[in-house]
């Protein structure tokens, strides 16, 4: 056989579901996991001033400041299609902004209104497995804070680990387990900038209780309470889906749904005092038995997102309306 060369290795990218050029893997920490000093103060991190520049760039493009930020999960980008009077800005046109590389993540911000409430939606989030350090995955959350957003609604696609969960269920996230954090990989790793928040932020009330209660009420009003659950989410680094043994371990420690996002975004959001609501769309049932021949795959994840898009749009637009009311009353 002909010897393998660098071009052959590059050709392997053709088999990846990437739609854009992959980012350089950023290893600005001594441990090579991309997190060392990566909280915005390292030479390779982004300073408060750089984030402010991004925020000001965005504010110069819009006429109304958004109150609520929405992160659209894999295959859930159509949530942003409910936005009226939309102003879309591609990530690649925003100075110093990362770009989306994953199928099902369009790669743009959409500003406008949902039920008359000014919002900003990320049609595409950034994942650790794309090669971004966690602080960079969460950079848009800090930008949200700087442009005046008070509430973050994070959505994600996740595997259902709780045996009672079905494909297409929507799980209100009541808590998370930061598995990557257990190994020291945290978006807040590195020097702390007090202008964003404290060195040691609490996480015991990460997912706003009032929002969760209202979300359950909305589920009843929309007659979808039979598919709406409440549970614990965890994020693993990905990009591979989990082994049977890994899933059984997660189940034992109380995880209801597993994905590859959200946890670090929520930590960053709580650090800078955003109110947080998160939901998981259960896109696949996790395989916890060696007798089960099913295998998780990204196409199915995207298909379930499409299948549930109408319900999710209705649900999220009600959430936006009611969360805004709660904030006005406070
Ligand atoms: O968490 P979101 O971005 O919704 O996507 C989830 O679905 C993808 C795997 O199919 C992974 O990116 C996982 O994190
Ligand atoms: N880690 C992980 N992420 C997912 N995203 C959608 N489904 C899954 C899953 O089963 N596992």
From TrEMBL:
It comes from the Eukaryota. Pathway: Purine metabolism; purine nucleoside salvage. Keywords: Glycosyltransferase, Transferase. It catalyses: 2'-deoxyguanosine + phosphate = 2-deoxy-alpha-D-ribose 1-phosphate + guanine; guanosine + phosphate = alpha-D-ribose 1-phosphate + guanine; inosine + phosphate = alpha-D-ribose 1-phosphate + hypoxanthine; 2'-deoxyinosine + phosphate = 2-deoxy-alpha-D-ribose 1-phosphate + hypoxanthine. This is Purine nucleoside phosphorylase. Belongs to the PNP/MTAP phosphorylase family. Residues 68-320 form the Nucleoside phosphorylase domain. PANTHER family: METHYLTHIOADENOSINE/PURINE NUCLEOSIDE PHOSPHORYLASE, PURINE NUCLEOSIDE PHOSPHORYLASE-RELATED. One of its GO terms (molecular function) is purine-nucleoside phosphorylase activity. Its EC number is 2.4.2.1. One of its GO terms (biological process) is nucleoside metabolic process. One of its GO terms (cellular component) is cytoplasm. Gene3D superfamilies: Nucleoside phosphorylase domain (3.40.50.1580).
């Amino acid at each position: 056989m002909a010897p393998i060369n660098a071009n052959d290795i590059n050709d392997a990218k053709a088999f990846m579901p990437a739609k854009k050029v992959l980012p350089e893997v950023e290893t600005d920490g001594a441990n090579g996991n991309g997190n060392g000093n990566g909280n915005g103060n390292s030479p390779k991190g982004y300073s408060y001033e750089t984030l402010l520049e991004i925020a000001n760039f965005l504010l110069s493009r819009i006429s109304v400041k958004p109150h609520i930020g929405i992160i659209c999960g894999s295959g859930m980008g159509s949530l942003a299609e409910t936005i009226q009077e939309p102003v879309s800005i591609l990530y690649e046109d925003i100075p110093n902004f990362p770009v989306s590389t994953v199928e099902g993540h369009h790669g743009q911000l959409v500003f406008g209104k949902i039920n008359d409430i000014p919002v900003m939606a990320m049609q595409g989030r950034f994942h650790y497995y794309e090669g971004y350090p966690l602080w960079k995955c969460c950079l848009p959350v800090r930008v949200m804070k700087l442009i005046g957003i008070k509430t973050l609604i994070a959505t994600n696609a996740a595997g259902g680990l709780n045996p009672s969960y079905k494909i297409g269920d929507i799980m209100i996230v009541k808590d998370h387990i930061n598995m990557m954090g257990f190994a020291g990989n945290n978006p807040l790793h590195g020097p702390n900038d007090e202008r964003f928040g404290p060195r040691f932020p609490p996480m015991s009330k990460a997912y706003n209780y009032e929002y969760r209660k209202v979300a359950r009420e909305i589920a009843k009003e929309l007659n979808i309470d039979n598919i709406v659950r409440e549970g614990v989410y965890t994020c693993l680094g990905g990009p591979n889906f989990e082994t049977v043994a890994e899933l059984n371990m997660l189940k034992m420690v109380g995880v209801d749904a597993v994905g590859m996002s959200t946890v670090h975004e929520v930590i960053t959001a709580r650090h800078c005092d955003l109110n947080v609501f998160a939901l998981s769309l259960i896109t696949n049932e996790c395989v916890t038995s060696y007798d089960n021949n099913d295998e998780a795959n990204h196409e199915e994840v995207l298909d379930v997102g499409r299948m549930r898009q109408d319900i999710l749009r209705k649900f999220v637009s009600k959430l936006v309306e009611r969360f805004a009311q709660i904030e006005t009353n406070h």
